[in-house]
Amino acid sequence: MSYIDHFKLQDQPFRLTPDPDYVYWSKQHARAKAYMESTIWLSDGFVVITGDIGSGKTTLLQSFLSELDDDVVYAVVSQTQLTSTQFLQAVLTEFGFKPFDARKVELLDMLNMFLIEQYSNGKKVVLIVDEAQNLSKKVLEEIRMMSGIETHKEKVLRIILAGQPELRDTLDSPTLKQLAQRVRLRFHLGPLNLDETRHYVTHRLAVAGRDDGELFTNDCFELLHSYSGGVPRLVNTLCDTALLCAFADEKQIVAAEDIRSAVDELGWEEHNPAGNAPVSGPPATRAGPPVTEIEVRSEGETLSVQSFPEGRVIVGRSPDNEIYIRSKFVSRHHAQLVSDQFGCTVEDLNSTNGVYVSDRQVKKYRLKHGDVVSLGIHELVYRNLRERPEAMNDDDEDELEDEYEEDDAEASQVGSSGG
After folding, report:
1. What is the DSSP pairing of strand 323-324 with strand 343-348?
2. φ, ψ dihedrals at 294, nearest 5°
3. Helix (H, G, I), strand (E, B) or coil at 2
4. 8 Å CB contact between 254 and 242
């Protein structure tokens, strides 16, 4: 029996994968959606939505897209580590073209003719760019030029940029002043407050089949907010873990002690009073200097290079991952990379096709500088951005080697149910 049956649910209420059915419309999320909807009826609509990792941007975009009328044609670009030519190719591919042999001038002409044709047919065209904080300034300048394509009456391309807070800083740089002037509306998604966190949890439970409001006791919510900081993704992670803890103890409801057990399982610490991310776990939200660099490659070509502080980073084909790989060979949440004072560990998250290091399948493995991790046809090249700490003595190393040898021995038992 799974906890879904145990708690009389019809679905898993706190999965990390974005799902429009579970959207909770806080005041700020409703306002952000209204801004996006304004792009449809404003001929020169250009909106920027920002928010921290896990704030609900991708889910918001999916909800917006699911409600578009038939007279709206849209393209969604989520892979943003691209040159300006590659970006134009990605946009045209989303619109149904095969533009890979065309030169840049031909790409621009192709896009221009497509937009004019759609306008003539009474269609509205929207370009949505997710993870836009990774766009280079050259690509952002290309987007500015695209936003200026017009007929003799009006502009013909609406644009929505969604990304992490760094996008705001980029747009405010002097070199992008002209682009910033094109933006009609900006909105930043902040964390949920305590009341919103309570409503968010009860809303997701109701969608999943428990609308009696009795599964989580009242003393849970303050703890949930304290340790998640009101970030929706972190609320999901903590609630899901708490459900598992209560299920393991054969309880019928989740109480404060189950939240504390989940916090211990996750290794989290309480958010500080300033409202910043937790000092400990999920580590991907922590601030600090970058210690790990990951280069994503496919067929010998570098697709992206990202740096991370100490903590956990999830890799997978779902756009909510910190390292997003759009490939049918990669599971939705394929693997995690955990960086600590000694380096970085890769761990398979029960993926369909497994995780390989040097052609050897691993379940959990301590990486060395320069190691190549294979996920399907993609490779992750690991680089340690700091010197090897002297704090690790020989006994520590022996213990770690024993641990990972044991984990590797279990690799053949990795399930094939992920994805």
Report:
1. unpaired
2. -120, 120
3. coil
4. yes
249 phi/psi in degrees, rounded to 5: -90, 10
Question: CA-CA distance, 232 to 201, in Å (whole number)?
Answer: 9
Q: Following DSSP, what letter does each residue of 102-154 receive, concatenated? A: S-HHHHHHHHHHHHHHHHHTT-EEEEEESSGGG--HHHHHHHHHHHT-B-SSS
Q: Report the C-alpha dihedral over residues 57, 63, 66, 68, rounded to 10 degrees.
A: -80
Tell me if the bond preceding 191 is cis, omega within 30° of 0.
no
> How do residues 356-382 score in pLDDT, each as one tens digit?
998 899 999 999 999 999 999 999 999
Query: Which amino acid is located at 48 in the chain?
Result: V
Q: What pTM did the predictor assign?
A: 0.63
Question: Where is 348: in which H helix or E strand?
Answer: strand 343-348
Amino acid, single-letter form, for residue 231: V
Beta bridge partner(s), residue 78? none
Tens of pLDDT along 55-88?
Answer: 888 888 988 999 999 999 999 998 888 889 999 9
CB 17 within 8 A of CB 320: yes
Report the Cα–Cα distance between both ends of the chain, in Å, rounded. Answer: 21
- Which region holds residue 79: left if phi is over 0, alpha if psi is between -120 and 50, else beta? beta
DSSP code for 16: S
Bridge-based pairing of strands 185-189 and 46-51 is: parallel
